[in-house]
Automatic annotation (TrEMBL), chain A:
Family annotation (SMART domains): LRR_CC
Species per Swiss-Prot/TrEMBL record: Orbilia javanica
Name of the protein this chain belongs to: RNI-like protein
Compositional bias of kind Low complexity: 53-70
Residues of the signal peptide: none
Compositional bias per record (Basic and acidic residues), positions renumbered to this chain: 177-190
From TrEMBL, chain B:
Claim: Nucleus is one of the keywords in the record: yes
Organism: Orbilia javanica
Protein's UniProt name: Elongin-C
SKP1 component POZ domain: residues covered: 10-73
Source organism, top-level taxon: Eukaryota
Localization (cell): Nucleus
Amino acid sequence: MSRRTSRGSHVSGPNSALTEFLREKGIDTSGIQALSHARARARNEAARRRSMAVDAAAQEAAEASIQATEDAADEEEETGEASASAARRKKKVSRDEDDDEEMQDFEEEEEEEPKATKPRRGRPSRATTEIKLVAAGKRKRRPTIVEDTESEFEDEEEEEEVVKTRATRTRKPTKAQLEKKKAEERRRLEEDDEFNPDNFIDPAFRPAPGQIAFCADCECRFTVTPYSRSSTDGEGLLCHTCGKKSAPVEKAARKKKQATRTNKKSNARAILDGDTSAVKSLQEICINTVAKYIDDVETLGYIGSHNVDRISQIICKNRRLNDDTIKLFFEPAEHVLRFYDCSKISANSLREIGAFVPTLRRLHLNWCGLMNDECLDYYGTQLKQLTSLELYGAFNVTEECYVRFFKNVGSRLTEFCVSDTARFKVAAMEALVDNCPELEVLRLRTLTHIDNEFVRLLTGLPNLKVLEITSPRESITDGSIIDCLNTFGSGLSELTLNGCGDLTDETLHAIQSSCGRLDILNIEELDLLTNDGISEFFTKWSNNYGLKEISLKRCVNLQSSGFAAVIDHSGRTLEKLSINSCKDINADAWTFLQEVKLPELESLDISFVRSVDDAVIEGILNIAPELKTLRVWGCNKLTEACMLKHGMLLIGREADILA
Amino acid sequence: MSEVIEDEGSLTLVSNDGFQFVLPKKCAFASKTIRNMFNKNSGYIEAKENCVKFEDMRGAVLEKVCEYFIYKHKYSGYNGQVPEFQIPPEMGLELLTIADFLEA
């Protein structure tokens, strides 16, 4: 008891709900002395005794016993400063803290010594370990501490009569119980989101646990527990049996909610992966299995180049292509090899491609940052049938090496793609133009040294069918592009000028006059293009009978009228269209769309066109029967209510992603 | 040639080591190859005998294939969570070539 008194002066903390409640009810700490505290049936008596006369002997005994308890270590110094008033104070604050309760329990046990009849009482001194164990065991049985504090009140009133029945209630909680309690509270908080009749009864009027109440349903008499449920109309509490009836339903509902959440998540993931069908084909399952265990595969054997490519795609995506796994793909008679992520492939392994697969015609290497001069030189001399080379991210290969390679390959080369390097400069381009006049496909992506002079060299490639210049680091202006288009524009089937931000409507004019055979036009991020320029371009482009693919992504000046011109020109033939971020396209465009047909359209990107809503999407689905992929990132007017076609992918709808 | 395909009843699939699997035609027709065999107009002997013998398939693999037919029949058109179809890793490549052949 001495400990208790001294502790009171030290401990301070937030008021518990109970303390608040007691204060509201006008029950202050001094009044509670005989009344208030949780396990206080016992403590009351002790307190009373204490207030009359502090027994020095008892104090000593208490001290001794406390010291025997390991969890009281920090409190020990304070023992001995007994005072009745402090005891009262302590009662007020202590119940907020678990360790306080622990201490109180010790006290109880000490003080209650005379009431040996009560089964739950400890013994005066902790020396008797068996009893301690028994007590601990009983403690465990007590459900939670919440119940404890809630029950304090009535405990006192009924103390005399019901002491025995509630004997186990006032046990201090074990760690496990505390955790359980926290979990319980968390769960309750979660449940609070939903309608929960339990929350409807004002806690102030809710009968305290331990009281006798009558079931609102079956009217039988029962003892209230913290778990007693309130009836559906919120009028009263239900007895255990009646409460249990609704439990499975709620549990199922909770489970279902959780399941929908996971479902939604995996659905969103599947949509991003482009997974539409729930049941995969057997080939696909097998390929996934093989890709999963690729490290254990000794040889792929003859499984068809299509399957080999699929496996390559999957293991590259999972970043599992390394010096060991790449060897599986070296089939001596192979014509095509594609590796989509060579970042882990050493120069030596890359070189081995030339040694093991001399029959290669097409070689595609993504992110082959470890490739060096020796490697490309080896390809140049070894791969006698090579006609197509795509090297993305080979930043170590020097310009001289490119020059040597072009000389070696000569006019055999029809396709060359290079990206992300600062070493592909004018000299390399000159060598390409001089040695490979048959070049049909040229892709130059994110090259550092590419300027007007560089672009003008392309005029020496009259056979070009596909030209891509993406995100050059230096400025490319209309003049050089127009020169190129005047030379080979009439043969072009694909033109990509993404991110050449200095191009203006002049370029469009050149395209309009020279590129009659164009199928694919990508002019992304050309923000100098005007709406009028685009409108005029498509309206007057009579020598072209319609494009298959158009990307006007981030041509921010495009407006509804320009969009209408695009649809007017190519609507019948369009398979793929992107107007991503063309923010000025508004309702006029969607009204216009209602009157046309887009019979071939398979893929549409209208992300960040804010005027898109459910009705627009439904309208588009009506006019584009073949539509398979629709990207709608950032179209925040879209809702789940939007009617979709079966088998169509809608990617980026907020409602699908936010679970 | 027009298609005359009876998809009622069942058929037998026989592996090269003599295991026989009897399953509903509806399920087995998940494979386009088998389905085409049972086109009466194409005159395959399999269509008459209701029995297909696979000379290059072991019993264990054919069993897996049959399992897949049933799996596909059961879950196609089902909107809920579809359990994954498990393939023993060592069978993966063998099954892949067979799946290609069967167009399953």
